UniProtKB/TrEMBL annotation:
This is AAA+ ATPase domain-containing protein. InterPro entries: AAA+_ATPase, P-loop_NTPase, TniB. It holds the Pfam family TniB. Residues 55-214 form the AAA+ ATPase domain. Gene3D superfamilies: P-loop containing nucleotide triphosphate hydrolases. It comes from the Bacteria. CDD domains: AAA (cd00009).
Amino acid sequence: MTDYSHLDPKTQAWLELPDLERANRMLIDRFITHERLQPIMDHIDFLRFSPPKSRASGLVVSGLPGSGKTMIARAIERRYPPIAAEGSKAASLPVLTIEMTGAREARALYDRILTELGVPDPKRYVGSDRERMVLKLCRAANLRLLVVDEIQDILTSTARQQRIALDTIKFLMNQLSLPVLALGTAQAPDAMQVDEHLNARFTYRSLPVWKQDPYLVNFLDALERVLPLKQPSQLSSLPITTALLRLSDGVLDPMMRLITYAAAHAVESGTEQITPQLLERARVEMPTAAVRLARERANEPAKAA
């Protein structure tokens, strides 16, 4: 009997898939809650479940581009999805995410919130009507966490626009007792410090740049268990970690891309394990599984006919 103990039981089941589907499966988004990320996720859970306070607090998570901020936002949305109405219990939206990019005035922020709440043509609301509608719908949805992505983009606007944007966030926090998770680059703390009163409500945490240490070993060991390859790759071994860090500069997104591309190449080539050579290949060559599978599926009806 073949030993696949290097994989989680659920991942072992994926080994039954045709090779093309299995190679394509390597490319899906994966969110690994590693040791360095767990305190951040715990803090987000704390914000989400804390009783409403008149002086709501927040968390700023910053990091280099590609360090995993967008992954966090998507993970939070998956963890706290919309809740459908059931019996006498109304539908709710625990978490709502907006982007600061290009938002120069309060109306832009309000329009984005209304859009996420499913309001058609939010621009038909103007002035105080727009503000009242945002507050009304957020309360009705029992919104408990506002995620503001790309918060550092506030700094690209004028001083007046910066104050307006932060005043709008502070207004929502005050009126709705609403905690805020702000995500951004290394400039994110600078953006929040434009308003010293708002700044005092936020805690600051940063995402790591990876290096050779036990944290990286544990992260890669956990990741290897969810990649359906038939042979152990020993991702945490020194030859592979050395190649990974050299090719990715220790930034999470390119590191994950290299690993998943190399895993798909490993299936396509029949090697069934990630090697430093496949990581080098992944840097310059995309796997073909997704395209080949799409073409294969597109031809299925014609073949059946």
